[in-house]
Amino acid sequence: MVDAVVIIPTYNEIENVERIIKNVLALQRDFDILVVDDNSPDGTAVKVKELQEEYPEHLFLLERKGKLGLGTAYITGFKWALERSYEYIFEMDADFSHNPNDLIRLYNACAKGTSQVAIGSRYVTGVNVVNWPMSRVLLSWLASKYVRFITGMDIHDTTAGFICYKREVLEKINLDKIKFVGYAFQIEMKFKAYLLKFKIKEVPVVFTDRTRGTSKMSKGIISEAVFGVLRMKFKSLFNSYEI
Fold first, then answer.
1. CB of 184 within 8 A of CB of 229?
2. SUPFAM superfamilies recorded for this chain (predicted)?
3. Largest interatomic CA distance in the chain
4. Does the pLDDT at position 221 exceed 80?
């Protein structure tokens, strides 16, 4: 039995999805993949179905009716994984900003170490980002500093989306109480794991911006993160924050 599943949310990732799937399934350690597709009009789900014929035991697909947000895609994937026997559940982008080879390092941090959460961190050993303009690097770095200051989490890359969760973490968090749907979802999940006193380890990785397809970042996503963090921390101080 494969004990690890990589959840990959997709929306219009036809240029990347075949390569990312084949790269992950070619690793020396066995991983299953769950693609959660938000009704991509470019045929991403169709390509995944074709690849399922090649990898029938390791590649799975959930199709949703529309573009419902990153956070809800992961929650859908988490619930699917928890209904099965996976011990290690991963978040990873489809666009190769996360190097598939680093999955093994994140896995080992949880499976062979003492951590319950392993974060592929861009900022734990400096700034390890490739192909981003300086303005975006600075925005991302300052956002993580801001979140760290407000929440008190000892995490350098608080907005990272390359993560391994041990099963027990996702079982303890009430996934139906997750409030955020954009990139603030990543902050909220880490904050809840932190409040539950799970051990979180940052594994240094190099983040490489996509070379194919288009980014899903928007001003609304950034606003949700900035103001959502303040609300989240405020509620936690008065014991009104549901974990």
1. yes
2. Nucleotide-diphospho-sugar transferases
3. 52
4. no
Which tokens belong to 56? Answer: 């029938």
Q: With b meaning 16 or more CB within 10 Å and e meaning fewer, what string describes 50-72?
A: ebbeebeebbbbbebeeebbbbb
Mean pLDDT of 159-177: 97
Q: Which tokens in the block code for residue 101?
A: 């080879």
Burial class (CB in 10 A: 0-12, 13-18, 19+), 42: middle
103-127 residues labelled b (16+ CB within 10 A) or e (exposed)? beebbebbbeeebbbbbbbbbbeee
- Both tokens assigned to 94: 């489809």
Q: Does the pLDDT at position 213 exceed 70?
A: no
Residues 6+ apart with CB under 8 A from 17: 8, 10, 35, 44, 47, 48, 94
Distance of CA 116 to the CA centre of its chain: 15
For residue 63, what are the CA distances in angstroms to 39, 83, 119? 6, 17, 27
pLDDT of res. 222: 64
